[in-house]
Amino acid sequence: MGALVRTTTFARMAAAAALLVVVPLSARAASEGGEVSVPDAVIHHVTDAWTLELENPITGAMASWELPKWRFQVGGTMIDLSPTRHLIFMWIAAALLIVGLTLVARRRAMVPSGLYSLVESLVKFVRDELAVKNIGREHADHYVPYLLTAFFFILTMNLLGLVPFSATATGNLAVTAGLALLTFALTLYAGMRSQGVVGFWAHIVPSGVPWWLYPVMIPVELLGLLTKPFALAIRLFANMVAGHLVLFFLLALIFLLPQLPVVVTPISLAFATGIFLLEIFVAFLQAYIFTMLSALFIGMSAHAH
Asked: What's the DSSP call for residue 162?
C-alpha cells in the first residue's frame, strides 16, 4: 500500500510538472494567434543562456532577469567570466549539497532514520560497492571523498533539472567535461602515486609487447587514456539532454497535432509522465555510472597488472 501511495504521488508530481510546460505554451500560442514554434520552445528549455526566466503557468507571461556580466581586460585579451543559467543552477546544487549533507551529518541519531538513513546507505554503497571493489581496500579510502562528492553533486544537479523552471547543469558539455577532467587528473595521480612517475609512464605499454610494436602501441595506449574522460563527459551529457528532449517533444505533440486535442492530449501527458518518472531513475543511474567508471579507471591506473 505504501509503495502504491508513493507511486501515485510521483505520478501526480510528474503530471503537474508536465502541465507547467503545457499551460504556458498554450497561453503563448493563444497570444500569438494560435501559433507556437515547437522546436524553438524545446531547444530553449535545454540550452544555456545568460538570463533566468520564469513563466506564469496561468497566463504564459514571461519574467526575465539578465545575469551580470563579469568581463576583465588582461593585457590585450578580454576574459569573460559571466555566469550563465547552467552555472547558476550548478551553484544552487552545490549550496544545497553542502547545507543538506552538513545538517544530515550533525543530526546523527542512535537509530538512523529518514534522510540520514538514506544518505548513510548511499555513502556505504559508494564506498563498499564502488571504491573498494574497483580500487581495492588498501587504497579505496584515499579516493572515497572524491567519489562521494562526484556522486552526490551529479545526482543533485540531475534531480534539480527536473524541477519546473529550472535547468539541468549536467546537460551542458562544459560541466560534464569539467567533471571528467577531474577524474582524468585523479586517474593520472593514482597511477603515479602507486607506481611512481617514471614507472607509470614506462609501463603505459603492457609488458611482453615486442619492441618493434612500440611505435604503434604508444599512440594507441595514449589515445585509450584520453578516451576515458571523453566517454565520461559525452555519456552524462547525452543522456541528460536526450531525456529532456524526449519529454518536451512528447508534450509538443499537443501542438503538432492540434486537430485531435481530445485524443492526443491525454496520450501525450500519459507518456510524458512516464518519461518524467524514468528521468528520476536516470538521474540516479547516471550519477552511479559516472562514479562507478571513475572508480574503475582509478583502480586500473593504480594497479598496473
From this structure: T
